[in-house]
Amino acid sequence: MSQPLHILLVDDNPADRVLVLRELRQAFPEVSVEQVTNAEQLTHALATGGFDVVITDYHLSWTDGLTVLRAVKVKFPFCPVVMFTATGSEEVAVTAMKSELDDYVLKQHLSRLPVAVEESLKKTQLRRDYENALQQLKASEERYRAIAEVVSDYAYGFRVEEDGSLVTEWTTDALIRALGYTPEEIARLDSWLDVIHPDDLPLIVPLTQRLMAGQSQTGELRVLTRDGETRWLHYYVRPVWDETSGRVVRLYGAAQDITERKAAEDALHQQFMRISLLNQITRAIVERHDLESIFRIVLTRLEDHLPIDFGGVMLFNAASQTFRIVARGPKSQRLAATLKVPEGTVFALDETPLAPCVRGEMVYLPDLTKTDVMPLRCYAHAGLRSVVGVPLMAEGQLVGVLGVMRRAVDGFSGAEREFLSALGEHVALAARQAQLRTDLQRAYDDLRQTQQAIMQQERLRAVGEMASGIAHDINNALSPIIGYTELLLMENRGLSGDARRYLETIRVAAMDIANTVARLREFYRQRTQQEALFPVDLSYIVRQVAELTRPRWKDIPQQRGVVIDVHIECDETAPPVLGIENEIREALTNLIFNAVDAMPNGGEIVLRTRVEEIGKWGNWDIGRSKTDSISPFPNFPTSSQVVLEVSDTGVGMDEDTRRRCLEPFFSTKGERGTGLGLAIVFGIMQRHGGRVEVESALGKGTTVRLVFPPRDGVETDVFPTHDHVPPLPPLRILCVDDEPLLREVLKRMLEGDGHAVEVADGGQAGIRAFRAAQDRGEPFDVVMTDLGMPYVDGREVARMVKEVSSHTPVLLLTGWGA
Length: 818
Known about the structure:
By secondary structure, this protein is an alpha/beta fold.
């Protein structure tokens, strides 16, 4: 503001006043604010005056904003009033606007208050200027009537013939000079009507009729100069009535050239309309929170009300120094289609004349036919001649450019360019606010996802800690089962095929139990570099697990009269994935069991393997909202991936259940479920660098996809398998374990390989046996000891062995997992 701003603030809420003062002083550093908090202070302020703007709250303890508005307007009609409120309705806003309220601001958008103040001051000044112009016009008209016969720019007279026609009687030199005609040229005109502007000729007949009826006439009329220029005249014509003949016989008149005044009025009106449009657009975009809708509303209003022939917005990428077209006006779309320059088209900065925009300067090209810039030639060929490029600046940086065009050469006046510059500031501010809101929402979403991930990790950690406490005892119970099973398979060559298959199934199942217990505590950790991944044939795993789970999906349901069909659809061309076979087998087993539980009345399970191109999630294209991978892993950077899919025709899940189904301990099975099945699957796929996708709907079944990255997309150490391992020479081995069954199994297995084995039932006994062998000169080649033993554990045994014989290998056995 050129002068210090004086504001009257009417508000009895101290907290609101602090917020309003902060906004005002940030926008207007030299502002002075008189605060009114009661009726007495308001009465005094209105009596004193001296303020430029009144800002009032709608809800006041002693009155309301509408009453304040009326009181101000009665005393000071041209003083702008801005109202703000937190709970105002549209009805209140409409009532206030009808009472000459200048602007209306919601408290949740209080940052718009300085803009409302500034726009209100501008509108008030325009209203003052307009009223002054009207008063001057009225005064002029009165003067013209009084002195038309005495003083005028032009005087003229007509003689009225019997047939009613008018013959020019005389004219002044001033009129001749003003229109550029010589007296001889005027004499040669067919009619004095030849100097009337064609658009005003329809006015002449009714004007003449009123004059012939003896009525004096005053008004405005356009005439043409000799060079075709249009001039505005304010005229006064007085008829002379002849009582004898009973008709008008002469017309005398005077006129004043008001061309400059009309131009000033027109400019004032245009300026008023542009400010009104600016205010209208600002109101429209302030409530919008995304860039696309902001840009489109701006372009639509410009096409309708400025107007323009073509408009668009380009965003600027500072890193690549390029512009990308992101929006066009609805009317501009048709022309854009013919030009074949669609939204999304990218231009390099050096291919455009928009370099000044980077510095915040507007670009105006009055004639595109005279430019050599290649992208603009197609617009020129389409008939567009002039263009304005308005920089959209945020915090001193170029965000984008608002471009508007017209078909006329030099089609934008200085006032219009000034308006577009002001509009650009509003659009840039709204765009910046929309971007900040988007960034805030994204940050909030990221924070929420992070919190959910941390909560999930903590739940997994709790599972792992609980599992580690019981893993030792479970593994001790499983070890004899596994050991004796392997002994039976090794020592009994005459087993039948069914017996050997049963024993192998028992061994595989027992090993899977041991691995499951060990992995429960590892949900929260990633795979370590020491864990090896081997090539795994998923199709083989599918067939193997289908056979292992047959009792669960076939035999047990059939006892209840329920039929479940399992179909296998394997892509034999699918390459092996890198993984841990027993973990993948466990994941698939859990999925099959879940599918069986989801079909209490029977149904169909499909086990499928296939190769999928990168760039799709499951069966859907990327970007469609239906695609929702629950696992948080991104797309893999290579060309294809292998998918293991389990589909059922069961009861399905609602959306909330589907989103939570991977959480540990979350179960819909009541007492029958632990809520660990899918959580284990999640952990397994996390360690494999893959992801889990779940598609489900109530009554439509469920499909779970295990998506493995391609082999060239995983960095890992892959240890080759060997078909033949050469046997070791006979060794003297000391086995230390406090579990009798485990000691016996180890002894039998090692002796079966030709080794000499001595056992000890605890850590202290093991130490004594090792020292005694050393003293006899018959040292052990290897010591195998359990880690968890009472009194003296495996660590102490290993420490003592290394002190006595540092070169003797020591193997630690544990049921506690990694």
